[in-house]
Amino acid sequence: MTYETIRLALDEDSGVAAITLDRPERLNAAPPEMADELVHALDTALARGMRAVLITGEGRAFCSGADLAGGRDRSAGLGGDAAHASLTDHYNPMMQKLAQLPVPLVTAVNGPAAGIGCSIALAGDFVLASRTAYFLQAFVNIGLVPDGGASWTLPRLIGKARAFEMMMLGEKIDAVKALDWGMIYGVVDGASLIAEATALAQRLAQGPTLALGLMRRCAAENLDRDFAGALAAEADAQRDAGNSEDARTGAAAFLKKEKPRFAGK
What we know:
The protein is an alpha/beta fold. It is built from ten helices and nine strands. The strands form two sheets. It has a six-stranded mixed beta sheet, sandwiched between helices. Strands 5-7-8 form a three-stranded mixed beta sheet. Helix 2 links the parallel strand 3 and strand 4 (105-109).
């Protein structure tokens, strides 16, 4: 597949797939095609054995949201029946794919992350932001409601009061405030953002990625389980992790007081 709105770089040595949202002239505004291309890129990365994913944006923005200039037949950003179709057929499958990745996800937020861009950014297990980045739920400013899973993610991530501040007031949350709220992992200088995000993704890729993927799944699914259900899910995940090659490798290295070399299997 030839990508028109993103770039995909697969590093076989580190096991990291780097995806760059690549419409800088539109602040990486996301038409439905971008959602489809992201899904394809993620599938390609997994098929090629990549063990971590890094997503960032080209230019001054991470992603400014759905592409309002695309017209009602192309964008979720203008609401109505077309928005319902775009979300159902394009954006929601992309968000599901990000949520269900079996490998770690790092997002490097290099500028504005608004609307669906905010949802993509916050899908990361580790969200690193530049000091000039901000997060925005601007839907209220045009009479719409949050999408991309934001109304599910934000209350769980930062609590009801702060989630409603973002969703109902539609004001920018700068990177430092987002860090203070516990919404993101870290804030770094823009010049070092990609290097630090890449190093983090590489570190994760060298870890026991089967276990890391199980951690992702348990953490997401246990939000909607009772305590007993969470315990049972952890037991199932521990069984799967314990039967892995990585667990055997880790145990052997521990006994030898050596650093394990995990294979993600």
